[in-house]
Specification:
Blueprint lengths: L4 H30 L12 H11 L4 H8 L3 H14 L2 H4 L1
Length: 93
């Protein structure tokens, strides 16, 4: 099957235009999902373990979660944010 250079160029242009739209949509969705609370994110499977550590020690840090759960800083920081969001309002004051 012969495909001319012009047909190949049209296909490449079409594929390129499709990819740009998809990438733009992903960026908008990421911006919307990162504003406010973490309602769009699934709960981290280690959140329960982090809650248990918090109950046992009352005060924990991001680095403590890193060591005990053997995870990296970004994940530990997200877990800390989730723990802070779930704190009852009376404890915040």
């Amino acid at each position: 099957c012969f495909v001319s250079d012009a047909e190949i160029e049209r296909l490449v242009y079409f594929w390129g235009s499709q990819r740009k739209e998809e990438a733009a949509q992903l960026k908008v969705e990421q911006l919307v999902s990162t504003t406010g609370k973490r309602e769009g994110f699934p709960e981290d499977p280690l959140l329960e373990s982090a809650k248990q550590l918090l109950e046992e020690h009352k005060h924990i840090s991001t680095s403590y979660l890193q060591r005990k759960l053997r995870i990296g800083y970004p994940r530990a920081a997200r877990l800390m944010e989730q723990l802070e969001e779930e704190q009852p309002k009376e404890e915040e004051g």
